[in-house]
Amino acid sequence: MGAEQAWLLAAIPAGMFLVLVLFGRYLPRQGDYLGILAIGASFVLFFPVLVDFLDFFDAEEARLAIHESIAWSEVGDFHLRMGIYIDPITIVMFGVVTSVSLMVNIFSVGYMKGEPRYWWFFAVLQLFAASMLLLVMADNLLLLYISWELVGVCSFLLIGFYWEKRSATEAAKKAFITTRIGDVGLLIGIILLWRETGTFEIQEIIHQAEEGLIGGNMLFLSMLFVFLGCMGKSAQVPFHVWLPDAMEGPTPVSALIHAATMVVAGVYLTARLLPLFEHAGGMLMIITIVGLVTALLSGFIAFAQTDIKKVLAYSTVGQLGFMFVALGSGSVAVAMFHLMTHAFFKALLFLGSGSVIHATHHNQEMDKLGGLWRKMPITGTTFFIGCLALAGLPPLAGFWSKDEILLVTRDAWTVWAFVLLAFAAICTAFYTTRLFIRTFLGPVRDQQVHDHTHESGFIMTGPLIFLAVLACLGGFVIFHEVGEALGFPGGITEFVFLPPHEPHEYEIDWALAGASLVIALIGVWFGAFMYWNGSLARSTRLAEWNPGLYALITNKFYFDDMYQAVIDKGLLGFSYVVAWFDRYVVNDTGVDGSAQVTGYGGYLLKFLQTGRVPNYAMGIAVGVVGLAIAGLAVTL
Amino acid sequence: MNATEVVWWVFAVATVALSAGVVFSRSVIHSAIFLIGSLGGVGAMYVILTVEFLALVQFLIYGGAVTVLILLALMLTRQSVSGEPEKVTGVQAPFGILVGGLLMAILIGSAVGTDWPNDVDDTPTNIPIETISEQLFDTFGVPFIIASVLLLVALVGAIILARQEEGDA
Amino acid sequence: MVPLENYLALSAILFSLGVYGVLARRNAILVLMAVELMLNAVSLNFIAFAAYLDPERITGAVFAIFVITVAAAEVGLALAIIIRLYRNRATSNVDEVATLKW
Questions:
Q1: CB neighbours (10 Å) of residue A480?
Q2: Is the separation of the CB atoms in A491 and A479 below 8 Å?
Q3: Predicted ipTM of the assembly
Q4: What is the per-residue pLDDT across B85-100, written as a single tens digit (0 to 9) for each?
Q5: 38-97 in B: which are within 8 Å (CB) of C?
Q6: Counting CB atoms within 10 angstroms of each CB, which of A40, A136, A469, B114 has the fewest?
Q7: Cα separation of A475 and A472, whole Å?
Q8: How far apart (Å, rounded) are the C-alpha atoms in residues B109 and A632?
C-alpha cells in the first residue's frame, strides 16, 4: 500500500463508526473489540504509508509532498476537487493521532466497563479519530472545514456523554458554542481567502501568496479570521474557558481531546497555513502574544486548582500556548515536535489520572487523595514519568521540545518573550510537582477512599506503559542520528519544514539547555518546597499573604464570570427587548391584531348578507354595469 | 320607408309597450297576458328576419307552454284574497330604474357605436331550414342530446319538488 | 331596410326592462316573467347576429333553440320551487323570504 491510499486511515474508523452505531448494542461485548480493531488497523496501516512516504521524500530534489485529488463537484466553470495532501506535518499528525487513539481505545475497555451506552462511546471514538485523520490530510480548506466541524461535533457528543448529569450537558454546550464562535471566524476566513484567490486548495493559495498575488490588508484580515478558528479549537485565551469544563466527559475522552485530536487541530491548521501567516503582516506577532498570554494565564490558574483533571486541563491550555509561540516564531518543526511529545505525555497523564479516578471510585479531588504510589505502583510510576516530561526535565520528551521552543523564541523575538516563556515554564514545573506530590505522595487524607483503592488491570496499565515509553524516548527524534536510524532523513527539524525555509540539523546549545534545566529545577524545587510531605501549611500561608491575588487565581481571572456577565447583561437584556417586541408588536399587534381586524371586519361585512334575493340580484346587476363601464373606459 | 320597415316599427313599438306592461303592471294576471303579447312580438321579429322555424318554436313553446305554465302557477299561488291593494314593488325599485336605464344606455350606445364587419343594412335573405337542421343535428349533435337529458332531469326534479308530500297541508 | 342596430337596440330595451323587473318586483312569478323577457332579448340578439353576420351557418339560431330549451326547463323548475315555497310560507314574495342570512 502506498501513501496515495492514506485515505483508508480515515475511512476504516469512519466505516466502523457506522457499523457500531447501527449494530453496536447487539454485538457481543457491544463491539468494543471492533473499535480497537478499526483504529488498530489505521495504526498498522500508518507504517506502510510512512515507509512509502520516506521512499518518496527527498528534500534536495524538492519532493516534499504527495498530492492526490479527485473531482468533487462542478458548477458551471467552477471546479471543486478534493484530495489528500501528505507531507511531513501530516505524517507526524498521523503517527500521533493513530497511536494515541489506539491507546485511548484500549484503555477505555477497562475504564468504561459497565457504563451505559458503552457501544455509543466506542462508535463516537471512531468518528472522532476518523475526522481528525481526515482533517490532517485534507488538501483543501472546504474538506478541512467539514472535518473540523465533525471534530467539534464529536467532542460535543463525548463531553456530554453523561448527559444525565446537568454539568456534563452544560460543559458540552459550552465547548461546542465557544469553539463555534471561533469556527465562524474560520469560515469567514476561508470565504475571504476563496474570494481573493478563487480556490480552496491550500497549496494553491500559499503559492499565490508567495507569488505576491494576494497580500496586504485583505490577507491579514482573512488570516486573522482563520486564526480565530484556531484559537477557538486550541483553547487559547480568551476562548480557553471551554477546555477545563470539558473535563466533564469520561477521562479517556479528555485524553483524546486534549492530547491528540481536537485541541491540536488549531495548532495543525496554523502550522499548515504558516506561509500565509508569514505573508500577512503582523500575524506572527499576534500568534506569539496569544500563545504567551495563554501560557502564563493558564500557568497561574493551574496553581489553585484542586481537581487533578482541571490541573491537567490548564496545563494543556498552557502547552498549546507554547506551541503557538513556536509557530509565531516561525518554526513549524518545533511546534510539531512539541505537539508530538506533548500528545504522548499528556495522553499518559490523562490516562494515568483516569486510572486514579477509576481506582478511587470517581474521586478526583486532590484534597481527598494522597499517598497513592504504594497502592498503585504502575500508575504512580508512569504518572511520575509524565509529570517529569511535562515539567521539562531531561532526558524526557518534554525537555527537548520545550528547550527548542525557548531557542526559537529567543532567536525570533526580543528577550522579553523569552523571559515570559521561561516564567511560564517555571509555572508548569511548579504545578506539575504540586499535582504529583498531592496525589501520589504524602499522607493519606481520606482513609476510606484509600482503603478501597487498588491498582488497575493490565488493559489500563498497558497503554500507560506504552505511552510512558514514548514519553521517555519521544524526545530523541530531535537528534540526527536517531532519525537516520529510524529511516528518516534526519532529526525532526530536518524532516518537518515548509518550503521557503531550509531544513536544519539540530545542534545542542549547551547554555540554553542548562538554562532550561535550571528553569525546570526551579519550578520543581519550589513545588517540592511548598508541598513536601503533602503539607499545605506553606501554601496556605502564601495564599493568605495576598488574598486578592489568590482570589483572582482561584476564580480563573474571572473569565467565566465576565462571559456570564456579558451574557446576563448584554445578551439577556437584548433578548428581553426582542421578547417584548415579539410579544407586543409581533404577537399582539401583528398576529392577534390581524386576526381581530379580520374577525371584526367579518362581523361588519356579514350584514351585507340580507338573505333577500333581490339584493343579491341588485349586486349582480350593479356588478355587470360596473364591468361594462370599466370595459368602455378601457376601450375608449 | 318601405313596407318591411313599417311592419318592423309597428311590431317593435308593440313589443316594447307590452314588455313595459309586463314589468310595470300592478296585476300579475295582466302581466302574464302582456308577456304572451311580448313573446309574440319577438316571434314576429324572427319572421321579419326570415327565420320562420324559430318563430314557430317561439310561438309554440313560449306563447303556448310556458305562459300556460305561468298562469297555472299564478292560479295555485293566488294571494291577497282580502282584495286589499298590495305593494307590488320592493324597496329597491328606484335603484332598479337607475341600473336598468344605465344598462340600456350602455347597450344601445355600444350597439350603435360598434363598427360591424359586414354590410349590416341589408335585410337578410331567406334562410333555409335545412341549414338549421344540419347545424342542430350534425355540428351540435352531442349538445342536443345533452339538452334532452337536461329536460328530462328538470321534469323529474319539478315533479319531485312540487309533489304533495305526506304531512303537507 | 332595417339595419342590425335596430334589432340590437330593441333587444337592449327588452333586456333592461327585464332587469328592472327582476330588481324591483316582489312577486316571484313576476320576477320569473322578467327573466323570460331577458332570455328573449338574448335570443333575439343571437338570431339577429346570425341572420346578418353569419347567414351561411346561422349558428346563432341553434343557440337560440338551446336557450329556449333551457328556459323551458328553468321555468318548470322555478315554478315548482315557487309552489313549494307558497305551500310552506303562504307567500310568493321574494323579499319576505330571508332565512338564509347571518
A1: 18
A2: yes
A3: 0.90
A4: 667 788 888 888 999 9
A5: 38-39, 42, 45-46, 48-51, 53-54, 57-58, 61-62, 65-66, 69-70, 72-74, 76-77, 79, 87-93, 95-97
A6: B114
A7: 7
A8: 10
